Amino acid sequence: MTYDFGLHFTQELGNRLGPDTDSWPATAERVTPFLTIVVDALGVDEGLRWFEGAQKAHLRVTEVERNRSYNFGFAHYLDTATGAHKDVTLPVLAAFETLKATYVVAQHDGTDVDLYFECAAQACSRLGGARRDRTQQLEQGRERRAAAR
Fold first, then answer.
1. pTM, whole model, 2 decimals?
2. pLDDT of residue 89
3. Contacts of 96 (CB under 8 A, 6+ apart)
4. Listed residue (106, 17, 2) closest to 54, CA to CA
5. 91: which of 34, 53, 72, 98 lies 20 to 30 Å off by Cα?
6. Where are the alpha helices (DSSP H) in 2-89?
7. Is 13 exposed, middle or buried (0-12, 13-18, 19+ CB in 10 A)?
8. CA–CA separation, 149 vs 68, rounded Å?
9. Neighbouring residues of 88: CB distance < 8 A, sequence distance ≥ 6
10. Which of 109, 99, 112 lies closest to 34 in space, CA to CA?
11. Distance, CA of 10 to CA of 19 (rounded, Å)
12. With 70 as the cut, is the pLDDT of residue 129 above it?
């Protein structure tokens, strides 16, 4: 299924960073296609769950670095947060590898990667809500047509 995730993600970035895209981090343009792959591979609802898992993984990395504890790395914490290892399908593998790449690319210019994951989660949340509203409207229309017969 095709989603307008890139548009919604960009809108969320605009809400957070302001409308002047010239002032946005350079990585914003590079991570957008990566994050879109996650939604295209998994769908809006699963994409939301994975972006929330990526936020948890990033938080875990940040915590262990701050505590100077042993760090298993973003990929391990992402796997734990999403349960990716339980059902390794092509869409899961694509989402997993894409989020790992997003993490590395986003950190290139010192951008807090959590900003991207949070905006992506919010974009999925809005897309999912809009999709559910549209489905409900279609069902109500069918019911009205059936009742009118």
1. 0.81
2. 92
3. 75, 78, 79, 82, 84
4. 106
5. 72
6. 5-17, 27-42, 44-66, 74-82
7. buried
8. 70
9. none
10. 99
11. 10
12. no
